[in-house]
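Explain this one:

_____
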Amino acid sequence: MKSDVLSTSATGIKSSGQDRIRILKFLTGFFTGGTELQVLKLVQGIDRERFDLNFSCFELKGNHLPDYEALRAPISEYPIDRLYRPHCFSQQLRFASLLRRQRIQIVHSYNFYANAFAVPAGRLAGVPVVLASVRDRGVYLTQAQKKLQRFVLGLADQVLVNAESIRDWLLEQGLREDRISVIKNGIDLT
């Protein structure tokens, strides 16, 4: 007998056959980049019967925006010019409000600025699962940004990286090993 309940043990989120898991992906924008293309390929293959897909960003711009819009998933914009200004905090509160209203169950953000914005807001909103992705070794981050990143990643339930070298770097930065998962970039061979 097939069960109507899908339990994702890694997240603790349960969904019946009729209730899709509400997931929101946060990107800075939709410009050409490895992250934006990997996320696009990932979500193009997501089972929309099981997942209610949503996006948020800082800029509703980029040459890949039409590809994301073709997914027919809601996209919300939170324009900021700096992380350290009061306007950013008001936008985070606005984002947290959306997360609560939409009853988002998983927030997944990608890279430094999106992580610094979305992870604390996800925690504030009480989202059950907050994921952060780090896809580089932080070579362009200042010392202050590295400290902020360590703090923010500590708030995430799990940090997803696409290479062992990034995992090793995050371990050197003081992140706990059990909070890091390596998921390498996939390539569609067809």
Observations:
- The CA atoms of residues 170 and 176 lie 8 Å apart.
- The beta strands are 5-8, 13-16, 21-27, 51-57, 75-77, 106-110, 129-134, 158-161, 180-182.
- The first strand starts at residue 5 and ends at 8.
- Confidence is low (pLDDT under 50) at residues 1-11.
